[in-house]
Design a protein that fits this description.
CATH architecture of the largest domain in chain C: Orthogonal Bundle
Largest sheet of chain C: 3 strands, antiparallel
Radius of gyration of chain A: 21 Å
Order of helices and strands of chain A: HHHHHHH
Structural class of chain C: mainly alpha
Number of strands of chain A: 0
CATH topology of chain A: Methane Monooxygenase Hydroxylase, Chain G, domain 1
Strand content of chain C: 5-15%
CATH superfamily of the largest domain in chain C: MetI-like
Strand order of the largest sheet of chain C: 2-1-3
Number of strands of chain C: 3
Shape of chain C: elongated
CATH architecture of chain A: Up-down Bundle
Shape of chain A: elongated
CATH class of the largest domain in chain C: Mainly Alpha
Chains: A mainly alpha (about 240), B alpha/beta (about 270), C mainly alpha (about 425)
CATH superfamily of chain A: Phosphate transport system protein phou homolog 2, domain 2
Oligomer: heterotrimer
Number of helices of chain C: 18
CATH class of chain A: Mainly Alpha
CATH topology of the largest domain in chain C: MetI-like fold
Number of domains of chain A: 1
Largest sheet of chain A: none
Helix content of chain A: over 70%
Helix content of chain C: 55-70%
Radius of gyration of chain C: 31 Å
Number of domains of chain C: 3
Chain lengths: ~240, ~270, ~425
């Protein structure tokens, strides 16, 4: 990408595609931050705004889809141009999912506000902050075509997964301790799950950034920190399981 | 394509590839007077594959193509050194006459150039001069067969004795292909065969190339990236007389290894 | 464009110049039409003057007299053999017939003047009649005898009548006799077969153009047979096979120069080399043809090369790509395609050769030839030389013969061109 295309308007169109994606990324990032804030601060109004801004993201995604179709039809991009367009299309759909998850988190705020504050609510900003930095880094990596940074983002997902596993364990414990918190804790659990999913999408985006730069897919197995599917609800009873009568 | 079966499993995976290439080019240099048109080109062409040669004008791709059937011999100031092996035989060797070579390596040109004779005579010409047929019936069979394979038989069956120049551009080009395959060559060279044709005629030729691949080794020079991508299995990129990159077409067009290839195919040549 | 001034639109600027440009275009067309009209007019005047002068030569004046085929005069020995019949005194019979027509004429001078009214060839005319039909001997027949040149001119109105009753080259008495014959209806103009089928003669009324036509045809056959194959072969070699180097450049320049060499030089060449060195018979179509072939050769070569060059290279490539050898490329494809052009060039060269006089004068084809040539080694003359000879003759009768021969030459030329066009059509239809 040392020099420009001979056809200048082609460059302009690719530039516009990048701009659209950057805008979408910015909105998704802010949405995630706001959603986390709203949960932590019990801010119903902020939550409502966050949900509303999802429409913006959806609209941008449609715009990018249409634009990509147009580029494919009219410019028939090949090689790195093709990768750029395809990556943009995929990244946009992942960002849209990120926005959806953020909105999903925000939607739980009114319910949470009607419930007593649970101690464990602090895990949300911690996890959210990590996911947010992943999104932010991967968008930087995309903007700079920085594969190295993208790999770092991908590796950071492990932390989010681990954190989710520990949050899962923690919330489970709270719920067992005080069944009255079950409603709030379930909401928080879903929020945490959403943040974990956002991390996954950030990872996927990172993989597309890598593909964009190198032209090949990242093949090595990604480290996985999410062991929650194998968790059981409580430590196994120490005694032998009573025999059936 | 013949694969070597019962491989020694301990061998490197590369040896699973087809047997020796149809054409091997080693250190080919071509000079026009004081200008060097090709600089130590090394290129292998596989049998029953379409190899596309791409590159900007004057990069030497046509020169290379014309070396393969020694069409450059007729240019007095042209000098060739290096080796081109067709089935292991040096085509610039003493034993091989260009006339004999051209019976094995056919050529289709940029502009459809049927002879100003009848359609039948156009196709029959090659077999006639090479003495491939003894009887009139054999000749007719070869002609119809070639027209059939060029996908032209149905369109011209009733007008074999009309002049070849009365056909449309695309039909003329397919006639030229039929004329080339009537000699039953092993290799067909195509020098921008669709540059004068409309998209429908181009599509028909491309479909034809795809079918012919089963029986012939095809080398095509094209300026259309899309065409190279559509018809070829391997693509070689020439630049300033050198081969910059050669590889699987899919790889060249999604992920070229060389900056210059990338710049050329995406339209960024400075 | 300066922003201070009101912007004049480009369309307006263009529109302003438009009238001037149109006018220039119309002027150009008018010049062209004028040039063509001038050329056409010149052609019409030329053809008109030739035809108006020459048309009368195709008829010749004849005088009807009662001929007594006297056995005594034809066959005094009475043998009846053809050889003896041939030796009869037919001139005397002709003269006697005239005298019989005017019985009142006496005195040797008058009788001689009377005899001069018929051609000196009238006797030959009677001889031929007898040879064709010996039964005529001893009979009396009304025969149209060929009139003399002077009477012919008088009859055609070329001889001016003078106030004293005489006319140009015709005495008063002869005019009176002529008028008497006209009154009797014994003077008529008949189609001049002798002109179309006979050889040259000192007497205009007996002169024919056929010997020259045959001479021209024989000469052209030699020229064509030499210039066409040699020229085409040379052109093919130079254009298709010869390496491009200094030698071929020199040859090319020399061929071009040769085309511009004055034709008399070729005549000198023929005189010194072909007649002098090789000793071929002079005045013959063979030598004339060789000389004209040498003269035509550069034209044929240049035209053939141009025709070969104009064959698109794509055809050569197509043939070579199929594995045709160089000679197959040339003879299967290039030459057939170039043939119409080559033939056009050859015809132009031949037409020039047909009208050529100067080099033929040098090799003796200017001789006075009465017999129609039948072989290439017979002494002959050609049409333009015949025209030149007649134009040079003092007799008034040769003026119309000159113009008529010119007409024949033009017809010959047209026939050659027509043949070429027909051949070319046939060649082109092949594909």
């Amino acid at each position: 990408m040392s020099n420009d295309h001979i056809v200048k308007s082609y460059d302009e169109e690719l530039g516009r595609l990048n701009d659209l994606l950057a805008r979408m990324g910015g909105i998704a990032e802010k949405q995630l931050a706001d959603a986390v804030q709203a949960v932590f601060k019990r801010d119903v109004e902020l939550a409502a705004n966050t949900v509303a801004s999802d429409q913006q993201i959806d609209a941008l995604e449609h715009q990018i889809d249409a634009f990509v179709v147009q580029l494919l039809a009219l410019r028939q991009p090949i090689a790195d141009d093709l990768r750029e367009v395809i990556a943009a299309l995929k990244i946009a759909s992942h960002l849209e999912r990120v926005g959806d998850y953020a909105a999903n988190i925000a939607k739980r705020v009114p319910a949470l506000c009607q419930l007593p504050v649970v101690k464990s609510v602090h895990v949300i900003p911690r996890m959210g902050g990590l996911a947010q930095s992943m999104i932010s880094s991967v968008l930087d990596a995309y903007a700079d075509r920085d594969a190295h940074k993208a790999i770092e983002v991908r590796n950071a997902d492990e932390q989010v997964d681990e954190m989710y596993t520990s949050v899962f364990r923690e919330l489970l414990t709270y719920m067992m301790e005080d069944p009255r918190d079950i409603t709030a804790c379930t909401h928080l659990l879903f929020a945490a799950k959403n943040i974990e999913r956002i991390g996954d999408h950030a990872t996927n985006i990172a993989e597309y950034v890598y593909f964009l730069v190198h032209g090949t897919a990242l093949t090595d197995e990604r480290p996985k920190g999410d062991t929650s599917p194998s968790l059981v609800s409580s430590p196994a009873p120490s005694g032998p399981i009573p025999d059936a009568p | 394509m013949e694969f070597v079966t019962d491989l020694d499993t301990s061998g490197p995976p590369d040896s699973i590839l087809p047997t020796t290439p149809k054409i091997i080019t080693e250190g080919l240099n071509v000079f026009y007077g004081d200008n060097q048109a090709l600089i130590s080109v090394n290129l292998n062409i596989n049998e029953n594959e379409v190899t596309a040669l791409i590159g900007p004008s004057g990069c030497g791709k046509s020169t290379y193509l014309r070396c393969l059937n020694r069409m450059n011999d007729d240019i007095e100031i042209c000098r060739v050194d290096g080796r081109i092996l067709l089935d292991g035989e040096d085509i610039y060797g003493r034993q091989l006459d260009p006339v004999q070579l051209r019976a094995r390596v056919g050529m289709v040109f940029q502009k459809p150039n049927p002879f100003p004779k009848s359609i039948f005579d156009n196709v029959a010409y090659g077999p006639k001069i090479h003495g491939l047929v003894r009887h009139k019936a054999d000749l007719e069979e070869i002609v119809m067969n070639s027209l059939e394979r060029a996908g032209l038989a149905n369109e011209v069956r009733d007008r074999l004795h009309e002049p070849g120049t009365s056909l449309s551009g695309g039909q003329q080009q397919r006639l030229c292909i039929a004329r080339a395959i009537a000699v039953q060559p092993e290799v067909i060279l195509m020098d921008e065969p669709c540059s004068a044709l409309d998209p429908i005629a181009t599509a028909k030729i491309e479909e034809l190339i795809d079918e012919l691949r089963q029986n012939y080794t095809i080398i095509i020079v094209t300026h259309s990236m899309q065409q190279a991508a559509r018809v070829s299995q391997r693509t070689a990129f020439f630049h300033l007389g050198e081969i910059v990159e050669i590889g699987e077409t899919a790889q060249i067009f999604t992920n070229p290894r060389d900056e210059r290839t990338q710049g050329y195919i995406t339209g960024r040549f400075g | 464009m300066n922003n201070d001034q009101p912007a004049i639109s480009i369309a307006d600027t263009v529109a302003k110049g438009l009238r001037r440009r149109r006018a220039a275009e119309i002027r150009l067309r008018i010049y062209g039409i004028a040039a063509i009209s001038f050329v056409l007019m010149a052609l019409v005047v030329l053809l008109g003057s030739i035809v108006s002068k020459g048309i009368s030569a195709f008829q010749q004046t004849h005088i009807a007299v009662l001929v007594n085929f006297d056995r005594e005069k034809i066959d005094p020995a009475g043998s009846g053999k053809i050889e003896d019949l041939r030796r009869g005194d037919y001139d005397g019979i002709a003269r006697n017939s005239m005298r019989a027509a005017f019985p009142g004429v006496s005195g040797r001078r008058n009788r001689r003047a009377l005899g001069k009214m018929i051609s000196s060839g009238a006797g030959d005319q009677l001889r031929e009649m007898v040879m064709a039909n010996p039964n005529l001997i001893g009979t009396r027949q009304r025969v149209w005898l060929l009139a003399s040149d002077e009477i012919d001119m008088l009859n055609k109105g070329y001889a001016r009548r003078k106030p004293d009753g005489s006319a140009t080259k015709v005495s008063r008495r002869q005019v009176a006799w002529y008028d008497a014959l006209v009154v009797k209806g014994a003077v008529e103009r008949h189609l001049n077969w002798r002109f179309l089928t006979g050889g040259d003669s000192r007497e205009p009324e007996q002169a024919g153009v056929w010997a020259a036509v045959v001479g021209s045809a024989l000469t052209m056959i030699i020229t064509l047979m030499l210039a066409f194959p040699l020229g085409v072969a040379a052109a093919i070699y130079l254009q298709e096979f010869a390496p491009k180097n200094r030698w071929t450049d020199i040859i090319e320049v020399n061929i071009n120069n040769l085309a511009a060499v004055p034709s008399i030089v070729f005549g000198l060449l023929g005189l010194t080399v072909i007649l002098g060195f090789f000793g071929l018979p002079r005045s013959t179509p063979l030598v004339g043809g060789i000389v004209l072939a040498l003269m035509t050769l550069p034209t044929v070569i240049i035209a053939s090369r141009a025709a070969l060059m104009s064959v698109p290279p794509s055809i050569r490539e197509a043939a070579r790509g199929l594995g045709a050898s160089s000679s197959q490329v040339v003879f299967h494809h290039v030459l057939p395609l170039a043939m119409p052009g080559i033939m056009t060039g050859t015809i132009i060269g031949m037409a020039r050769a047909l009208g050529e006089t100067a080099p033929l004068l040098m090799i003796g084809m200017v001789a006075f030839i009465v017999d129609v040539p039948s072989k290439f080694e017979d002494a002959a003359t050609v049409l333009p030389v015949q025209i030149y000879l007649w134009a040079d003759s003092p007799e008034r009768g040769f003026v119309e013969k000159t113009a008529a021969a010119t007409m024949i030459l033009l017809v010959f030329l047209l026939a050659m061109n027509a043949a070429a066009i027909l051949l070319r059509k046939k060649f082109e239809r092949k594909w």
